[in-house]
């Protein structure tokens, strides 16, 4: 029997996973259950890698399955289809660890209760992250489960980067800028340490542009500022989230237009961003294919907002040595990279158009390095989960 490590990465509508040999961290397969809870689209499953065939062959998810159901289905299927493997440890992405969790932790019922307190701060993610932990704690209490936090990477930020200009009492009860996408930023930081050992110690901005989107400013490969804040709604325009908007507009929507708080929530999380401005899709690929004036305007606004926020982070850093694009849009859309970089000549950013078009690792032609680096949140989860699993085994 081979002991295996399962890394689970629950996003708003998908459950990505990766399976590794728990001792060597050799990847066995990776994949996703997608369109979970999506309206008008049935959930579906895909997997790639050496152990993928038995998992994916004939796989049919219930069309309306949720994250918890998909996790249970996957774990049962691993047991049934890959009988030579034994699940030794599960690592989970958990979006919010608040100010108290700055490194990965083995989840006990007591820790789970503390993590549940953060659900209101990340309503689109935290429940999906915690549901599989909950059901596995009940069904397999001895199976080590490790929580890895998206907020943890940003705990190095100076206090000014974490404070809101609100009365002090708010900060004292935890109303701070936490920042998210930390597992992705941690992976990119590790890659940069390898790729550009000296330059990457300087002023780096990483643009994680996926359905959710944010930027992280790093110095010495530690986070010093980020565009998401108390929630994952702040900062950049996203697939269906607004990003930063005038806070007075929220007051206007509630007080003058009479929208309920729940209606504002739905508007800002689910109906805005690329989807809201285009009225077509939250998916950049669909907008690039559409090319109509409204699709064009949505893409132009996405690039403009990203460029403005890059300027803001460059101010926090005092300049820019290296800009890194990652995640679905950052890794795959030369057009969006070019639109954004078009604003940034004053920071030493210029593109090598041919390198950009083919998605080369290094696409810059100016004083600042510009890189395209594929992110891998599951690898960060796996590394951390193996570390705590081994410590636990050694402590017994
Ligand atoms: P998340 O993990 O946040 O759900 P992803 O990192 O998978 O999201 O990014 C999804 C986004 O990436 C979508 O807007 C999608 O259109 C975009 N994307 C993926 N591939 C391409 C591509 N080849 N060209 C343009 N956009 C792409």
TrEMBL record:
Matches recorded under Gene3D superfamilies: 3.30.420.40
Which pathway is it part of? Metabolic intermediate biosynthesis; acetyl-CoA biosynthesis; acetyl-CoA from acetate: step 1/2
Active site (UniProt):
150
Q: InterPro entries recorded for this chain?
A: Ac/propionate_kinase, Aliphatic_acid_kin_short-chain, Aliphatic_acid_kinase_CS, ATPase_NBD
Q: Which GO terms describe its biological process?
A: acetate metabolic process; acetyl-CoA biosynthetic process
Molecular function GO terms recorded: acetate kinase activity; ATP binding; magnesium ion binding
**What binding details are noted for the cofactor?**
Mg(2+). Can also accept Mn(2+).
Which family does this protein fall into? Belongs to the acetokinase family.
Assembly: Homodimer.
The protein, known as? Acetate kinase
Query: Which gene is this protein's source?
Result: ackA
